TrEMBL record:
GO terms for biological process: methionine biosynthetic process; transsulfuration. PROSITE patterns: CYS_MET_METAB_PP (PS00868). The lineage of its organism: Bacteria, Pseudomonadati, Bacteroidota, Chitinophagia, Chitinophagales. This is Methionine-gamma-lyase. The modification N6-(pyridoxal phosphate)lysine is found at K220.
Length: 405
C-alpha cells in the first residue's frame, strides 16, 4: 500500500515484510560483511549496478528497515514541489552526536558560519564551539524567536551558510517558528536543519515548511524505551544524501549496529500511541503543578502562560512531554524534591516510557558556573521532567508527596 491514513500504520508497514527467509520482522543482521559468489558479482556491487550489501559500515538491512521507517514518518502526508508524495532519505548513526557531526561536516567548510538559537542541546553547542570551530566553521548564536534578528543577521553576514533550529528546546521549552525562519533562510539560499528530537515526527514535521534536513537523537522518543543510543539524519535532496552526505557518514564511521537498529524499529511501532499518552499525561501534570503552592513557575507550551503557546499550537500536534518547573525553595528544595520521589525515575535523558526527572543545577549543569547557567534559564530550583506513560494518578501522587514539607 502506498498511502496510509495515519503514522501507526506507517511505523508498522512502511518497509513491508519481505526478506530472504520470510521473517515477519526484519532480522537482526549481526554481520560485519556480506559474501560474494564470484569476482564479477563483487565488481557489480562495487559499481552499484548490484545493490546487494558489501560491508556493514556502508549499510545493513537492519539499519535500512529503521531508516526507511523514519523517512516515511517524517514524509507522511507531505508533498514535494511537483505535488508528488515527498521522498526522503535517512541515515542511521551510532548516536545523535554522530548524526549531527555528519550534518555539519557534510554541509559546511572553513569560512562558513552556522546561525542558531541560544537554547541549544549541550552536545550540539559544544560540537559547534569546539569541533566545528577547529575546522574553521564559526557559530553565531542569537534569539531566533525575534525574526528581525534573524533577518538582520543573514543580511549582514554573508558567511552564514546554514541555520540550525532546535524546537522545542531545553530548559524552558522555547520554540522557534520553523516556517518563518525557513522562509527568511530560503530567500538567501541558506541550508536549514531542524533538531526534531523533543517533538518526534508525530508531533511536528519540519519538511512541511521546506527545510533541508531533519535530525533526531533516536535515543529519545523514537526508540521510546531507553534501550539504545542512536541518531538519524534525514534529507530531501536524495542525490546529495546518497552521495556526499553518505560519503561523510561512512568515512566518519558513526554507523549504527544491527541490535540497536532492531530496538529502534521495535520502539517506533508504538510511537503514536506513546506520544498521545505522553502528551495527555504531560498536560495534566503541568496543570497540577501550575496551581501547586510549592511551585513558582511551570514551563510547558500547553499552558497559556508560556510565551510560545500559540507558536507550539501552530507547528505541533500536541505540546509534547517535556517540561521544566521552578521550585520556590531554590537549590535545597530541588535536591529534597528529587530525593523524595518514589516512582518517577531520577535520570537525565528524555522520551522513555517512564517518567524521568532531573535537577540540572545539581546534575547535568553542576560543573557550569552559576551565573553562566542562570543566563541559560537553569536556575537553582529548576526541575526538568520528561513525563512518561504511567497511569496519571500515580505520577501526580508521587509529585504531591515529594512536594510536601
Ligand atoms: C539527546 C539529544 C541530542 C544528542 O543525542 P545523543 O543520542 O545523546 O548523541 C541532540 N539533540 C537533542 C535535542 C537531544 O535531546
Amino acid at each position: 500500500m502506498d498511502q496510509f491514513s495515519g503514522i501507526s500504520s506507517v511505523a508498522m508497514h512502511a518497509t513491508g515484510h519481505k526478506n530472504a527467509d520470510d521473517a515477519h520482522l526484519t532480522p537482526i543482521y549481526a554481520t560485519s560483511t556480506f559474501t560474494f559468489d564470484t569476482a564479477q558479482q563483487g565488481m557489480e556491487r562495487f559499481a552499484g549496478s548490484d545493490k546487494t550489501r558489501i560491508y556493514s559500515r556502508w549499510g545493513n538491512p537492519s539499519f535500512t528497515a529503521a531508516e526507511e521507517t523514519i523517512a516515511a514518518l517524517e514524509a507522511f502526508g507531505l508533498k514535494d514541489e511537483s505535488g508528488s508524495p515527498l521522498k526522503l532519505k535517512a541515515l542511521l548513526h551510532s548516536s545523535g552526536q554522530a548524526a549531527m557531526t555528519t550534518l555539519f561536516l557534510a554541509n559546511l567548510k572553513a569560512g562558513d558560519t552556522v546561525l542558531s538559537h541560544f537554547s541549544l542541546y549541550g552536545g550540539t553547542h559544544e560540537l559547534l564551539h569546539r569541533v566545528m570551530d577547529a575546522t574553521g566553521v564559526k557559530t553565531t548564536i542569537i534569539d531566533m524567536r525575534d525574526l528581525n534578528l534573524v533577518a538582520d543577521a543573514i543580511s549582514k553576514d554573508s558567511s552564514i551558510r546554514m541555520i540550525h533550529i532546535e524546537t522545542p528546546a531545553n530548559p524552558t521549552i522555547q520554540c522557534v517558528d520553523i516556517e518563518a525562519v525557513t522562509k527568511l533562510a530560503k530567500e538567501k539560499g541558506l541550508i536549514v536543519s531542524v533538531d526534531n528530537t523533543f517533538a518526534s515526527p508525530y508531533l511536528q514535521q519540519p519538511f512541511k515548511y521546506g527545510v533541508d534536513f531533519v535530525f533526531h537523537s533516536t535515543t529519545k522518543f523514537l526508540n521510546g524505551h531507553g534501550t539504545a543510543i542512536g541518531g538519524v539524519l534525514i534529507g530531501k535532496d536524495l542525490e546529495k544524501m546518497q552521495t556526499s552526505v553518505w560519503k561523510w557518514h561512512v568515512l566518519l564511521g558513526g554507523n549504527s549496529n544491527a541490535f540497536d537498529a532492531f530496538l529502534l524499529s521495535l520502539g517506533m511501532k508504538t510511537l503514536e500511541l506513546r506520544m498521545e499518552r505522553h502528551c495527555a499525561n504531560a498536560m495534566e501534570v503541568a496543570r497540577f503543578l501550575e496551581q501547586h503552592a510549592a511551585i513558582a513557575k511551570v514551563n510547558y507550551t500547553g499552558l497559556t502562560s508560556h510565551p510560545d503557546h500559540a507558536l507550539a499550537a501552530k507547528q505541533m500536534r500536541h505540546p509534547g512531554a517535556v517540561m521544566s518547573y521552578e521550585l520556590k525553595g531554590g537549590l535545597e528544595a530541588g535536591k529534597k524534591f528529587i530525593d523524595k520521589l518514589q516512582m518517577c525515575v531520577r535520570a537525565i535523558s528524555l522520551g522513555t516510557v517512564d517518567t524521568l526527572v532531573s535537577h540540572p543545577a545539581s546534575m547535568s549543569h553542576f560543573g557550569i558556573a552559576r551565573e553562566e547557567r542562570i543566563k541559560y534559564g537553569i536556575t537553582d530550583g529548576l526541575i526538568r521532567m520528561s513525563v512518561g506513560i504511567e497511569n496519571l494518578p500515580d505520577i501526580l501522587n508521587d509529585l504531591e508527596q515529594a512536594l510536601k514539607d
